[in-house]
Write a structure and sequence with these properties.
Elements lengths: L2 H27 L2 E6 L1 H4 L10 H4 L1 H9 L2 E4 L7 H8 L9 H7 L2 E5 L2 H5 L3 H12 L8 H23 L4 E5 L14 H9 L7 H22 L5 E3 L1 H11 L1 H6 L10 H17 L5 H19 L5 H10 L3 H12 L7
Parallel strand pairs: 1-2, 1-3, 3-4, 4-5
Length: 339
């Protein structure tokens, strides 16, 4: 073989090796995120239709626009006790939940809601009012729930830290889904509250006070164990939106008065996005570009009657994912999608 041929062959080998190493580095740099918890994270109830779950579930929005490997291992109906038992099992299926947790760069958890919402929320509101008026004796049912929640929550954090002490851990607070017309407060509870001087206009305030007692499980743990995890404050964000625009606040809640709607999921995705950007776990510009493309593609595919030029203009001028979210749902409001 000539010297020129040998030199050419060596160059090819070097180039091929560099490409291989570069590809390996690229693969290593792709971050992974695991979503755990309840039906809010699982996104089976709420995103509509279910066939569009990957377009509207916040787990998929976060994963897709940031170019992450993303794994949804949340389970509808799970309370803190169920989640603790679930993540304590050895891998026994193709889901490989524990393995995904151990390998993840980021772990996001939505839990606690069912600890309270699977009981009679209206009765808990009534109990809270009666307690404040000195009309009940003994420990409220609410406190029994919270005591169990605190114990399970601490064990969940410990288990996740045991599996993966280096992962960035996030816990999402429970938003307030209670509005005057909410079905969470049934007719008999409404009558009982009325006798105590409360009308439907008071329900949201009462619901907020009750839900914040539940969120205290998260906030108190973090106060006692600083830097254990990051809080994604859905309670604060949903409340601020509702205070500024009550109609939009209602739109964040699915018609079952519990789960987040498509828009609610998008808002939660944006809250997570803000934290990822704050922690330098993603490239803001790239995520923003991806999100523009995702939402523009959805409008073209699902809303043929939408104003495409307006959408394109507003998306291109947006400087954050939350601005794109607000523009997308404003432009598509009242339009019938085609799936």
């Amino acid at each position: 073989m000539s010297k020129k041929a040998v030199a050419a062959l060596l160059c090819l080998i070097i180039v091929a090796g560099a490409v291989f190493l570069f590809a390996g580095c690229e693969e290593e740099e792709q971050k992974s995120i695991v979503f755990l918890g309840d039906s809010i994270a699982e996104a089976v109830l709420g995103p509509s239709p279910l066939s569009a779950r990957e377009d509207y579930g916040y787990y998929a929005i976060v994963g897709r626009r940031n170019g992450y490997l993303y794994y949804n291992r949340a389970v509808s109906g799970h309370k803190t006790s169920h989640m603790l038992e679930y993540i304590s099992r050895e891998d026994d299926s193709a889901y490989m939940t524990v393995s995904r947790i151990k390998e993840a760069d980021i772990i996001h958890v939505s839990i606690l809601g069912n600890d309270m919402l699977q009981t009679n929320v209206g009765e808990l509101l009534l109990e809270m009012v009666k307690e404040e008026q000195g009309l009940i004796d003994g420990a409220p049912v609410r406190e029994k729930i919270l005591a169990s929640s605190r114990e399970n929550f601490a064990a969940i954090v410990a288990k996740l830290k045991e599996y993966n002490p280096d992962a960035v851990l996030m816990f999402q607070t429970v938003y307030n889904p209670v509005y005057p017309e909410s079905t969470l407060v049934n007719a008999s509870t409404r009558e009982a509250l009325a006798l105590l001087g409360y009308t439907a206009d008071d329900y949201r305030t009462l619901g907020g006070r009750l839900i914040e007692k539940l969120n205290g499980v998260i906030r108190d743990y973090l106060a006692e164990n600083p830097d254990s995890f990051h809080i994604i404050d859905a309670y604060e964000a949903f409340g601020a939106i509702s205070d500024a625009d009550e109609e939009r606040g209602r739109r964040l809640i699915y018609p079952d008065w519990i789960h987040p709607s498509n828009e609610g999921h998008a808002v939660m995705a944006d809250l997570i996005q803000d934290k990822l950007e704050e922690l330098l776990l993603t490239d803001k510009k790239t995520a923003l570009d991806h999100y523009r493309q995702m939402r523009m593609s959805q409008i073209k595919r699902e809303f043929p009657d939408a104003d495409f030029l307006k959408a394109k203009g507003e998306f291109n001028s947006a400087t954050s994912c939350s601005q794109i979210t607000e523009a997308y749902f404003a432009i598509t409001a009242g339009l019938t999608p085609t799936y």
